[in-house]
Amino acid sequence: MKNLMIIMFSIIFSTLFSCSSADNCTKINTIPSRTIITPTGSAYIPESQLEVPCDFVATPIQEQAPLQNFSYEVLNFTFIPDTGNNTNRLKFDIKLNNPNNFVINGFPYFTVNTDGIESSSGFINGATSTCTEINPNSSCVFSYDKEASLNLGSIQSIQLVNVKYYLTE
Question: Model pTM greater than 0.90?
Answer without folding.
Answer: no
